[in-house]
Write a structure and sequence with these properties.
Elements lengths: L1 H23 L22 E7 L3 H12 L5 E8 L6 H9 L5 E5 L9 H12 L6 E5 L3 E3 L3 H11 L4 E5 L1 E3 L4 H18 L4 E4 L13 E5 H6 L12 H11 L3 E6 L4 E3 L5 H11 L9 H16 L1 H14 L6 H28 L3 E2 L12 H13 L2 E4 L2 E4 L9
Parallel strand pairs: 1-2, 1-4, 2-3, 6-10, 7-11, 7-12
Antiparallel strand pairs: 4-9, 5-11, 6-9, 8-10, 13-14
Helix pairs in contact: 1-10, 1-12, 2-3, 6-9, 6-10, 9-13, 10-13, 11-12
Length: about 400
Amino acid sequence: MGWLGAFSAGQLVLALRVILRWLRSTGGQRLSALSLPHADAATQASVAVLVPVLNERERLSPCLEGLLTQGPEVGLILVIDGGSEDGTDELVSAYARRDRRLRLLSAAPIPDGWNGKVWGLEAGWRALPSTFPWVLTIDADVRPGPGLVSALLARASRDRLAALSLATEQELPPAPLLGLLHPSLLATLVYRYGLPGVVYEGPVDRLRVQANGQCFLVQREALAACGGFAPLRHSLCEDITLARLLVQDGRRLAFVEGGSLASVEMYRTAREAWQNWTRSLPLHDHLSPAWRTCLGWLEVLLVQALPLPLLSLLAGALIAGRRRWRQASLWLLVAMLGLNAGLLLLRLGTLVGMRRAYRRPPWTYWLSPLCDLAVTLQLGRQALRRRHRWRGRLIIRGNAPGGIA
């Protein structure tokens, strides 16, 4: 039974790591337009918004509608098209006639080897006038609420931040399978990185930092010091890579809940989430050593995914063979049973806590722990792969000097 004891000890150590991480990240405040002062006159026309797109006609309208409601803090909304063939450019042109701040930039063709979204951001970055001290990246599926940019600027000023990104409110379509899978995928971030609301500063936080490129505000000067978006061109998790570069450079960065200020419908089917989100969720780039990625995966496996199946197996073994177990072995089984029961309760508590990240989730949300083991195995598989496809384009992770193998 020696290996069972070692397994239990490892599981306990990793569980303590996760719990301590959660304790360190509790107490974070949501971003709120009502609880923060509005940006003053000095911040007018201080933000340039970059929206990279590729065949986004069906879902771009809510994003543009939300951006056009933003106040005078936004001086430019630049939509960068990587070569859409579905009429996205026509849609953007129609919106541009409503607001002079909105412009369309063609960035086609996307160079070989580049992450397409990163190329769009880099093309937009190169085209920006130098008059904007802040750059805000917004994904096409994000739905900005009124006062979003004002609240971002106010929080960045209050906390002396060089960058600030939001945990956006998740919207799920009425798709039971997606409601089952999506929360399980999101929970892997909570187990590995803790809760939103943390301020990161200095190289010590490089591998602990969280960020979300769906809504990411960064000082122009800090972004320029990192080389713009070009260093992210081979990354599958470009938002995390940028955040790591910023804190490595000594910048102060925060990741907070956005509440109702920004929502997103990332995927419409479970298949889309399974194929696309698991590609980036390992958060493995040239700045993260392989051992750290492996450790995070083990935390998800042993603390999030295995307690439910292990609890069933251990209970069955205890009931079926109670008389055959030696006293020491019996006590070990009981201890393992108690440990995994506690971890399962922890998982259910996480599910309750994550509920506020969703706007009207389907009933299958509450069954999402059933997907944890399959999700964990898929994340491990994706972390080991170097060659990935994004919208028909081949991306080779780390295919650059200084990249990871």
